[in-house]
Write a structure and sequence with these properties.
Blueprint (H helix, E strand, L loop, with lengths): L1 H5 L8 H5 L8 E5 L2 E4 H33 L5 H14 L3 H10 L4 H19 L6 H10 L1 H4 L4 E9 L2 H12 L4 H8 L3 H4 L4 E6 L5 H9 L4 E8 L2 E11 L6 H31 L6
Antiparallel strand pairs: 1-2, 3-4, 3-6, 5-6
Helix pairs in contact: 3-6, 4-6, 7-13
Length: 285
Amino acid sequence: MKNRLFRTLILPAGFVMLLAGCTVGSDYVAKVDGEKILQAELDNALHEQYGTEVLETLITNKMVELEAKKLGVTVSEDSIQSEYEEIIESYGGEEALQKALEANGLTEESVRENIRMYQLTKNVIATGIDITDEEVAQYFDNNKESYGQQEKVVASQILLEDETTAKDVLKKLKAGEDFSELAKAYSIDSATSENSGEIGTISRGQMDEAFEKAAFGLEKNSISDIVQTSEGYHIVKVTDKVPAKEAELKDVKDNVYATILEERINEEYTSWLNEKQEEYKIERK
């Protein structure tokens, strides 16, 4: 449902105005060798290509608004802001998002309006969904692993190109030389060498199998022997360990409920929409 509601984001922000035949102070939108491409030509082309899809979206949005008014359902500015910040993060920052919006002829306001309509639709449909404590408990039991805390380690590395150099560096470490300084001096991994070899927090399944076996087998503040992978020869240091922890329902009950609700909304959206289309008098010209 989210993809369906957000698909209008790929259309120009002024498209609905064009469908309505609004002009922007001129009878043409471009010229080729002095020959005009008329505003009316653009309007007709856009209408033929996207008109039906956008019209159906507008009709759906209107039904949602009417249902929300009847039910007293609203969307808070905080929830809109929260989802907008998630979108910013998914694009890698506000600057990257703004570039994407500009490339598609969109504005922050149009994105926020899409978020508002999406959340309003969810909230309206949610009023007709009842989720019992038994359902929540059953879902948790069936998906307990996904709610638990995975075992993690905070690791650093010195990556060497050949075994001889790796043995020399390991000898220096055993003699008491500083790991971070040796990483800066010897590591061929440019992504970590300048940062004292720090990789950061890793979970199982993220790194090479041999690397992980060594890292997760180390005690806190200890250093591995030489570990060979397809990348070269690693010396691994673990500076912290986070043990695995099994989830308890009382700690994640709200998250489980939200997940079930999201799934139910997605399941019921099409039937809800069909029902409302039958209920409301819709006239298409």
